[in-house]
From TrEMBL:
Family: Belongs to the bacterial solute-binding protein 2 family.
Signal peptide per UniProt: 1-24
Protein name per Swiss-Prot or TrEMBL: Substrate-binding domain-containing protein
UniProt-annotated stretches for the region Disordered: 30-52
Main location: other
Domain Periplasmic binding protein: 57-313
Alphabetical UniProt keywords: Signal
Source species, domain of life: Bacteria
Length: 349
């Protein structure tokens, strides 16, 4: 491994994995009533949260072409606004890899203190992320991983495999006593590793209660794609007991197709955790009974971590004196029993 130049004294690599959500304790700007909370305990976080040296953070993410991605950027901005010592420079969201590479190159040339990057394509963005690290600028990789672990100081991930496991376990708890139960799956984009991971987790969890996926279609994370895929599924499967839809944005179209078909003999669990899905759950009148969280606050976590790194602080709830290399967030199931705990921080599809 090549030794990377050190911009500040804190750039030491530390092994460790923390399954913690860091969306964060109270910021040093108390004027915002919509502060993102959670993670580090407020009782112990005083030194972390006190205003310190100003941290200039460059942020780049794909275009906000659906609710979850829109919330990624908005949550990052909202978190930064809570801290007087964060200067956040937000590049325009883009699905053009070459443009995103250019954005990161601009941040490098400007000499920002850290870069928080949700790549449109992790493999394509790896070389420029390595350039930033070699320039002594720590990169916080969000959601879509680089090809080379040396391209990021910290990686913040959702748990795609865990989403599938949570969805499968929920269906097992609801219909697992019936070994003849018909289970269907409406996936996202099949070519993406995240979709493959979600499907594998789902299959593995169902196997634990003797079920499998009887009918499967793939959509594309859009409302239109969800409606088309669900229409095809309902036509192919005259009887269904449970459906898992990977994504609540495409779930808007899935629910429309279900209503158009007049079908209500099954239960459905969604994915990602949108506010409109949670309202459906609250209503008690929908086939949608649950959704699995895939946090849209991952980039906000990245902003928090970037600030801690530059200011040479650690995570108060850990004994370690450095921020971990990897933070993987949990994939809880939201039902009518706990929906009130999650809906205020949910994104709109």
């Amino acid at each position: 491994m090549n030794t990377l130049p050190i911009k500040k004294a804190w750039v030491g690599l530390v092994a460790g994995v923390a399954a913690l959500s860091l969306v964060a304790c109270t910021g040093n700007d108390s004027g915002d009533d919509t502060e993102l909370r959670g993670g580090t305990s407020e009782a112990d976080a005083g030194s972390n949260d006190e205003e310190g040296e100003t941290v200039v953070i460059g942020f780049s993410a794909p275009a906000a072409d659906h609710g979850w991605m829109g919330s990624i950027t908005e949550s990052a901005k909202r978190l930064a606004e809570q801290y007087d010592d964060i200067e956040l420079r937000v590049a325009e969201g883009t699905n053009d890899v070459n443009l995103q590479i250019s954005q990161v190159e601009t941040f490098i040339n400007e000499g920002v203190d850290a870069i928080v990057l949700l790549p449109f394509d992790g493999a394509a963005m790896t070389p420029v992320a390595l350039q930033a690290m070699e320039a002594g600028i720590p990169v916080i990789n969000v959601d879509r991983e680089f090809d080379d672990p040396n391209a990021a100081r910290v990686t913040v991930l959702g748990d795609n495999y865990g989403m599938g496991v949570s969805a499968g376990q929920y269906i097992c708890s609801e219909v697992g006593d019936d070994k003849d139960a018909v289970v269907a799956e409406i996936a996202g984009i099949d070519s993406l590793p995240l979709t493959q991971d979600r499907s594998q987790g789902f299959e593995d969890a169902l196997a634990e209660c003797g079920l499998d996926v009887d009918n499967r279609v793939a959509a594309d994370f859009t409302v239109e794609g969800g409606e088309e895929a669900a229409t095809n599924l309902l036509q192919a499967a005259p009887e269904i007991d449970a459906i898992w839809n990977h994504d609540d944005d495409q779930g808007v179209g899935v629910l429309a197709a279900i209503e158009n078909a007049g079908r209500d003999e099954f239960i459905m669990i969604g994915g990602a955790g949108s506010a409109n899905a949670m309202r459906e759950i609250q209503s008690g009148d929908s086939v949608l009974k649950a959704t699995v969280i895939y946090p849209s606050t991952q980039a906000a976590d990245g902003i928090k971590l970037a600030r801690l790194l530059v200011q040479q602080k650690a995570m108060s709830d850990l004994v370690e004196v450095e921020v971990p290399r990897t933070v993987q967030l949990y994939a809880p199931v939201v039902t009518e029993d706990n929906v009130d705990e999650y809906i205020d921080s949910a994104f709109e599809s």
